[in-house]
């Protein structure tokens, strides 16, 4: 619903409806009320007629999410299309014509909107829907359309409430607020960070994620589901006909009746299956309600059966499930039901135009092969019996046999709108899953508003208590809870939110689910592990007590429980590396182990290896003091090594204070530790060298680049706000402008923050970082996310003093990443005025090329990807576009032949990006690759492409420059594995094999016994994105690539290319051959890696 106009036009769709008998005086009164509530006006009148216009659905030729499929619309049904190119600040555009003949806009929640849109339903211009409206009887008439519009308005108001109220709330830890009060700070606005409302909005990504984890919690307690059942609404049900036929109405006229009848039907089915145990005793279930594109609701139901009632064998499955056509003579009623409701197609050669046909084949893989017996495949899924028994059905003139029988397994229809208005549940499960929060001592979250005084917040009753603390207090008074873990506790007790206390449960059963936290949270992560086994603790100290021994940290307690392994292999890795390189590289290796959270007890590794890290420190001190007889005791030497390690950690925005078990240097007497280290790092440049660099770079800039540079610098120097997007394809000099801006402004002692979407791109920027690490952007990020930036931190002070923020590779990042930064900067940037400026008034310059990689949306459609880009964000309305068109590669002095060849290739790339190469482009196009770029003569394709890319490899395998300019790209990991295996055979050196130690996360095996049955062989066979294979084969001279970010200051990022120089059992030595740290030596140890845990 985009634009609704009412006025005196010739177009019937926009004609003013007049009717005698209407009380004109009441209409006039209401019209005057409308005029007084319209804040803005529009000068443009629509001159185009809507006659003959139509709504056209253009499906994409790809596998996309079902929510974006072309809807099979009933022509008599009205639907609401929620267009995907709007944002949180967009409004429905509703234009009316006033009595004075002017066009004006009103809000979609205006009380007179429905009366103007549906004059037949509101002949006296009565008030329609408005916020806080009371319940009333429904009008007659165009009932379906009216319900649809009311439903979308209700949802719009809920979203508006969430957006408006989230700006008032802040959150901080209790101990942090207490410390601020002790320091004399009382303003809540200067503490904590903005907070978004909980994941309660139905259909939001966070809401779906929480449901997923709730489902996994049920699986952990009762096992995996046994039956998957789907019930679809049938508009020909007799109950529906009995209500509609007397009124001469169709099912599409009364979506409320359809919704209510379907709800009764599925509730009866649920009762038959659960309470009446039609298919056996049910111990748990989950369901979700969905709505088809044709407007009918359906339910997907998972049933978890009692172990005595499962269907483990093929014969037992055949007793309840059939994929065959029943005999028409023996059971005509069942035959009719199967014929009308459970036959796929026809499709294939009989009906090539069927919607399921893709590239001449059925996308649902029908017809299926005949199957004489039901069998269970290797993954435990059944292949149902489909015997060739001669039973057939005629459908649309096509004879169909058992091979076509199937099991029935943001477009808003009237039924969905009605369902939401009635408040019917969308999801359901039994038993109930309760999400359990936990925290360290004094670190529970406190929610308050901007204007609250900290003293008032902390003086509220029970502010120092939490649900988690109340659980431990309850264990002191109730014996029933002392044999239960935190997750088990909710099965016997119920929490009273108002009184903040637990009491014994009188009825029902609930499953507790501990919220997930990543390992990087350190003690909080280990606390969660202890909560899975510790029963009946009465204090935080009890959670760290094992066999009457109280351990100082939760990590130590996890060691005592046997959850964590020792660190002997990391001690061996440092021991191997110390024979190869200096102590400086050994310290870097130790810091790398800290940053990757690989060591379980870093203090023990430190105790046994620190003396190897101190070798060069003794030499340097003797050299600086000119005294060869200088002696340093161990305590002083350890402190100097710790200072070096602290400096390396500070460069990665970490500190030894982040590792409680590690010692901290006693003498940190340098400005880096006394002041804001982030600001000092951004100002730690040689101004004279920067000015010389700027003069050299500026003298070689093109006219385009000079104009863009001057435009940005002018805004920065005037301290004005601005948002720019520098658009240009590869080779036009975007990075060149970034370097020019950085050298110029930093020479004037201005702070410039330079970030990129990927680690590799950030290495090309002077002082560059990844945007996620610099601004603490959450992962995953949602529409209303905020960065994890708290008031009062060094990062906030840095951002307040920043003059310019440059963000490269913007098109490949999700728009929510930019919006999260906007939300945070509006909050933390301090202004004298109260203007809610975009990005807090900071100058933002984005750059990139929309022809290159766009945001990756898992299982997303083409429209989903486009909608995720930055130019689909509300921020784009404030953005000024700057363009680069000249290819810098063609500006260099080169031979005319080479210049023509490069120019032709560059133009061919541009034509591909513009979509003008190939035939008609509807999302896919056939592109003819120039003959000179192809390998046309080959017998073995792998051998041919390696020989072409790496000629004479056996004589150059130790040549770093040889590998720097060569690489092979492939679209699948399988092809890459073939290339790697073949190249290893061509490198003449000894091969070493490294085997991974694969295991299921301890916290998973503790919570669920079902994961313990996974064998080591099965885990070793898994190939997961982002992880190397179980067996890693390497040779000296082999080019390798990192799969994760290790240490950006060393140039070790996801995608960094290296060449192996040494191989040992526990560590690899390699030289970097890409980025800005080329030829640097690095040591890479074994480390823990895990795939993404998001669903």
Automatic annotation (TrEMBL):
Query: Which reactions does this protein catalyse?
Result: ATP + H2O = ADP + phosphate + H(+)
What is the organism of origin for this protein?
Answer: Glycine soja
Protein name per the record: ATP-dependent DNA helicase
SUPFAM superfamilies, per this entry? P-loop containing nucleoside triphosphate hydrolases
Question: Can you give the residue ranges of the DNA helicase Pif1-like 2B domain?
Answer: 1017-1063
Q: Where is the composition biased (Basic residues)?
A: 16-25
- Describe the location of the Helitron helicase-like domain by residue ranges: 152-302
Q: Which GO terms describe its molecular function?
A: 5'-3' DNA helicase activity; ATP binding; ATP hydrolysis activity
Q: Entry's Pfam families?
A: Helitron_like_N (PF14214), PIF1 (PF05970), Pif1_2B_dom (PF21530)
EC number in record: 5.6.2.3
What is this enzyme's class at the first EC digit? isomerase
Q: Specify the superkingdom.
A: Eukaryota
Required cofactor(s): Mg(2+)
> Which InterPro entries does UniProt cross-reference here?
DNA_helicase_pif1-like_DEAD (IPR010285), Helitron_helicase-like (IPR025476), P-loop_NTPase (IPR027417), Pif1-like_2B_dom (IPR049163)
Which key words tag this protein in UniProt? ATP-binding, DNA damage, DNA recombination, DNA repair, Helicase, Hydrolase, Nucleotide-binding
Cite the DNA helicase Pif1-like DEAD-box helicase domain residue spans from the record.
701-922
Q: Does the keyword Transmembrane apply?
A: no
């Amino acid at each position: 619903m985009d634009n609704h106009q009412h006025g005196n036009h010739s177009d019937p769709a926009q004609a003013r409806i007049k009717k005698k008998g209407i009380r004109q005086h009441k209409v006039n009164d209401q019209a005057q009320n409308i005029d007084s509530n319209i804040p803005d006006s529009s000068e443009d009148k629509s001159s185009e007629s809507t006659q003959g216009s139509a709504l056209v659905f253009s499906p994409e030729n790809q596998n996309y999410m079902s929510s974006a499929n072309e809807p099979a619309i009933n022509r008599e049904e009205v639907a609401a299309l929620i267009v995907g190119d709007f944002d949180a600040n967009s409004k429905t555009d509703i234009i009316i014509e006033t009595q004075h003949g002017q066009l004006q806009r009103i809000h979609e929640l205006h009380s007179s909107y429905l009366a103007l849109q549906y004059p037949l339903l509101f002949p006296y211009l009565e008030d329609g829907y408005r916020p806080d409206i009371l319940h009333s009887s429904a009008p007659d008439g165009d009932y379906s359309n009216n319900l649809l519009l009311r439903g979308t308005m209700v949802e719009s108001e809920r979203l508006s409430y969430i957006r408006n109220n989230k700006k008032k709330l802040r959150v901080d830890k209790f101990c942090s607020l207490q410390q601020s009060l002790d320091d004399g700070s009382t303003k809540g606005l200067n503490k904590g960070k903005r907070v978004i409302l909980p994941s309660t909005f139905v259909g939001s990504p966070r809401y779906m994620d929480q449901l997923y984890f709730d489902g996994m919690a049920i699986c952990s307690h009762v096992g995996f589901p046994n039956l998957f059942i789907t019930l679809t609404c049938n508009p020909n049900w007799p109950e529906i006909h009995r209500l509609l036929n007397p009124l001469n109405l169709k099912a599409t006229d009364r979506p409320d009746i359809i919704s209510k009848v379907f709800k009764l039907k599925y509730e009866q089915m649920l009762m038959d299956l659960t309470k009446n145990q039609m298919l056996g005793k049910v111990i748990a279930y989950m369901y979700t309600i969905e709505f088809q594109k044709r407007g009918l609701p359906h339910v997907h139901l998972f049933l978890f059966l009692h172990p005595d009632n499962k269907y483990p064998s093929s014969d037992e499955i055949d007793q309840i499930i059939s994929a065959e056509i029943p005999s028409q003579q023996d059971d005509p009623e069942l035959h009719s039901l199967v014929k009308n409701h459970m036959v796929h197609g026809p499709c294939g050669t009989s009906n090539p135009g069927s919607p399921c046909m893709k590239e001449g084949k059925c996308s649902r893989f029908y017809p299926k092969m005949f199957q004489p017996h039901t069998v269970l495949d290797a993954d435990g899924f059944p292949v149902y019996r489909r015997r060739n028994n001669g039973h057939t059905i005629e459908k649309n003139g096509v004879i169909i046999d058992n091979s076509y029988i199937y099991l029935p397994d943001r477009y808003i229809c009237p039924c969905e709108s009605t369902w939401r208005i009635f408040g019917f549940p969308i999801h359901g499960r039994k038993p109930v899953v309760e999400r359990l929060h936990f925290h360290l001592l004094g670190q529970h979250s406190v929610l308050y508003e901007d204007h609250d005084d900290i003293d008032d917040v902390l003086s509220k009753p029970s502010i120092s208590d939490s649900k988690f603390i109340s659980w431990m207090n309850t264990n002191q008074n109730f014996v029933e809870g002392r044999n239960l873990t935190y997750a088990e506790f909710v099965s016997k007790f119920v929490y009273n939110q108002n009184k903040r206390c637990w009491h014994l449960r009188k009825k029902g059963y609930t499953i507790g689910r501990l919220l997930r936290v990543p390992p990087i949270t350190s003690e909080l992560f280990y606390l969660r592990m202890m909560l899975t086994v510790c029963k009946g603790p009465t204090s935080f100290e009890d959670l760290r007590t094992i066999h009457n021994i109280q351990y100082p940290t939760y990590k130590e307690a996890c060691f005592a429980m046997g959850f964590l392994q020792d660190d002997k292999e990391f001690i061996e890795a440092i021991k191997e590396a110390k024979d190869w390189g200096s102590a400086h590289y050994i310290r870097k290796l130790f810091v790398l182990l800290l940053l990757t959270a690989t060591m379980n007890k870093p203090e023990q590794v430190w105790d046994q290896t620190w003396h190897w890290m101190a070798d060069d420190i003794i030499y340097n001190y003797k050299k600086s003091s000119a005294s060869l007889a200088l002696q340093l005791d161990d305590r002083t030497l350890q402190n100097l090594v710790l200072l070096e390690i602290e400096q390396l950690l500070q460069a990665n925005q970490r500190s030894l204070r982040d590792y409680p078990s590690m010692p901290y240097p006693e003498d940190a007497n340098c400005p880096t530790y006394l002041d804001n280290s982030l600001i000092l790092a951004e100002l730690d440049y040689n101004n004279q060298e920067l000015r010389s660099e700027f003069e050299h770079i500026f003298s070689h800039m093109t006219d385009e680049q000079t104009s863009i540079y001057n435009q940005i610098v002018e805004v920065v120097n005037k301290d004005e706000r601005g948002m720019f997007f520098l658009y240009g394809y590869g080779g036009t000099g975007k990075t060149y402008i970034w370097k020019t801006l950085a050298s110029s402004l930093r020479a004037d002692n201005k702070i410039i923050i330079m970030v990129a979407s990927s680690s590799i791109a950030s290495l090309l920027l002077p002082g560059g970082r990844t945007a996620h690490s610099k601004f603490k952007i959450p992962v995953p990020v949602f529409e209303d996310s905020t960065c994890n930036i708290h008031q009062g931190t060094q990062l906030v002070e840095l951002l307040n003093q920043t003059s310019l923020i440059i963000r490269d590779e913007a098109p490949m990042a999700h728009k929510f990443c930019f919006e999260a930064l906007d939300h945070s900067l509006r909050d933390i940037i301090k202004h004298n005025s109260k203007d809610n400026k975009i990005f807090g008034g900071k100058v933002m310059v984005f750059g990139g090329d929309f022809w290159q990689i766009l945001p990756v949306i898992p299982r997303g459609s083409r429209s989903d990807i486009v909608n995720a880009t930055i130019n689909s964000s509300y921020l784009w309305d404030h953005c000024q576009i700057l363009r680069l068109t000249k290819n810098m590669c063609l500006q260099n002095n080169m031979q005319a032949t080479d210049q023509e060849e490069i120019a032709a290739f560059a133009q061919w790339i541009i034509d591909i990006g513009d979509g003008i190469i190939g035939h008609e482009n509807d999302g896919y196009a056939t592109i003819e690759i120039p003959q000179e770029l192809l390998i046309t003569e080959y017998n073995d394709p792998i051998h041919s492409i390696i020989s072409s890319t790496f000629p004479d490899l056996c004589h150059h395998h130790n040549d770093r420059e040889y590998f720097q300019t060569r690489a092979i790209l492939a679209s699948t990991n399988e092809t890459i594995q073939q290339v790697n295996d073949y190249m290893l055979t061509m490198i003449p050196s000894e091969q070493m094999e490294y085997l991974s130690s694969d295991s299921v996360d301890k916290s998973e095996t503790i919570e669920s016994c079902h994961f313990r049955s996974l064998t080591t062989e099965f885990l070793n066979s898994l190939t997961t994105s982002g992880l190397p294979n179980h067996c890693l084969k390497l040779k000296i001279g082999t080019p390798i690539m990192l799969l994760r970010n290790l240490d950006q200051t060393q140039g070790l990022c996801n995608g960094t290319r290296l060449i192996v120089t040494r191989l040992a059992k526990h560590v690899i030595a390699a030289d970097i051959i890409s980025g800005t740290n080329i030829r640097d030596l690095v040591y890479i140890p074994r480390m823990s890696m895990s795939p993404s845990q998001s669903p």
